[in-house]
TrEMBL record, chain A:
The keyword Transmembrane helix applies. Keywords: Cell membrane, Membrane, Transmembrane, Transmembrane helix. This is ABC transporter permease. The chain crosses the membrane at residues 21-39, 51-74, 81-102, 122-145, 152-171, 191-216, 246-264, 276-293, 300-320, 326-342. Its main location: membrane. GO terms for cellular component: plasma membrane. The keyword Transmembrane helix applies. It is a multi-pass membrane protein. One of its GO terms (molecular function) is transmembrane transporter activity. Pfam families: BPD_transp_2.
From TrEMBL, chain B:
Its main location: other. Residues 1-21 form the signal peptide. Keywords: Signal. GO terms for molecular function: carbohydrate binding. Residues 28-256 form the Periplasmic binding protein domain. Pfam families: Peripla_BP_4. It is found in: Cell envelope. Gene3D superfamilies: 3.40.50.2300. It comes from Salinarimonas soli. This is Substrate-binding domain-containing protein. InterPro entries: Peripla_BP_I (IPR028082), SBP_2_dom (IPR025997). GO terms for cellular component: cell envelope. The lineage of its organism: Bacteria, Pseudomonadati, Pseudomonadota, Alphaproteobacteria, Hyphomicrobiales.
Amino acid sequence: MTDTALATAPARRWTMPDLTALSPFIALAALLLLGALVSDRFLTYDNLVNVATRSAFIAIIAVGATFVIASAGLDLSVGSMAALVAGVMIFVMNAVGAPGAATPGFLAALSGIVGTSPTGALVAGVGIALILSVLCGLANGLVVTYGRIEPFIVTLGTMGIFRALIVWLAAGGTITMRSFELREAYRPVYFGTLLGIPIPIVVFLAVALVGAVVLYKTAFGRHIVALGSNEDVARYSGVPIDRVRILAYAIQGLCVGIAVLVYVPRLGSATPTTGLLWELQAITAVVIGGTALKGGTGRIWGTVVGAVILELVANIMVLSSLVSEYLVGAVQGAIIIVAMLVQRSLQRRR
Amino acid sequence: MKKTIGLGLAALALSAGAALAQQKSVTVAVSIPAATHGWTGGVVYHAEETAKLLEKGYPGLKVIVKTSPNGAAQANALEDLMTQKVDALVVLPFNSDELTNPVREVKKRGTFITVVDRGLKDPAIQDVYVAGNNPEFGRVAGKYFVDNLKSGNVVVFRGIPTVIDEERVSNFEKALEGSGVKVIDKQYANWNRDDAFRVMQDFLQKHPKIDAVWASDDDMALGVMEAIRQSKREDVKFVLGGAGMKEMIKRVMDGDKMIPADVSYPPSMISTAMGVTAAHFYSNAPMRGTYVLNAQLITKENAKEHYFPNSPF
């Protein structure tokens, strides 16, 4: 008995991780099949491209969330952060593109450096958006690390702070890109294509690729996973815990910044309802992708598939006429749970 | 000693009374939600503008505008306001349940109460009630489709599942009854631009021919427009929003073919309420009662009256 168990063990060990890593893809395939069954318009090129493009924001943010969650952290502030960064970015572009008497001195000076052309305004907006998002992420990381407070509480706090700041900045209204010229120049970043592929898809594949290389191939990536699986062991093994943790939140911030760069050209505006509940969608995408909420594992490609799955479920709901609009939420929730059950049953067959 | 002071005070009061006869002094407190989304942003703007106008127009009138971020904070704000001498309270309650009792307490002090938009549980508390008309909002929109589209396929965007949304949508559908206009699809998009964009992309995939869109809200209309523009589809003749956001009114004014009209649900109803309240103290006309503002169809002809370029909404 023992002998046979030992003899078969190595073979099992090889098939096991494959199935686990594959399960989000199997869930994706099952959903594609379901979609094709409910609507003959589902499997059209246009529809699938729409869905993949729309999932870009959550996918990019969720790549960052994979780092945070793999290190046993959590960031609830990403949705509010996205809204704030988007608002500030548009505000900066408006101010730099057409500085007036009311323009803050710093932005007026910036406008002197980069110029008031659409390109200058865009450079200033992109630069400030990325800097601000990293700073927001750093703030989360620093308070979590040095304040020794649960990340849930810290990021719940910053979630409120970022949201209130965008509401204040917009005076409850909307921050819209004022220059028509700039709006048209920037618009292709969401609606345009590169070699036939929509740019948002290119961006999220690039972000996922870089994320996968960092998480799987670098010492920092292994430190993240080590910190997430057991903090004490990681500390005694010489992992620079504080630095790794802070960096994870900074990466999350950067990912939010990149997502915003793709988000702003779509509607050219930010409102107090921008990015509402994105944090939950990002976390769901990470978990559907096979990363455990308790940390210690991180699956970048699974996360990306998770984000696409979320968007697909919503798409199937609108395309099918079977479900009344009142029940869409319930069916959506059920599909996600069933998809997870399928995955977990695959993983348990070890 | 006491008597002389009392006499002195009485004399003072008398002379003050004489002064008051020429210079009346009335304080009106306005309690509204803070600007947490576009519409309430508009409410705050109009409340502040109207406060200035009324103070200029009515000598001796003082208007205090106080915003609160949530229902509990608004209840506290009401208590704080009552420590000052306030003759009237204009309140747009966060919600009916939480604010009914705090407003009742204010009423007990003999304060004149004007309630705006969201009614209280006990209507006996209010002296004046000013409200928008949600069933009418749906009806006016429906009538616009019947008159202008006559027949065709329409998709409908719903807001957040609430009584407001239900009243609007059910009356919209009632208005279409018997006409050639058909609602081929309905979906919630939460009064949110991004959600509306997403749903419209899917509608465009699902339905080969859509003649017009009832976005039912200006924020949602903006998301819808962007999705239509991306699809390069020519079949959608127009998009009807609602509420009266300045960007949309501007398009109506400029004669944008896709946005030929809008339906009002004006945040400036706070101004109506404040005006009626002030008039109660400065005129002899009876003011108590319920004022239901029409949901007006805004077209190129009357768009100017609804355009407030300085408002955040």
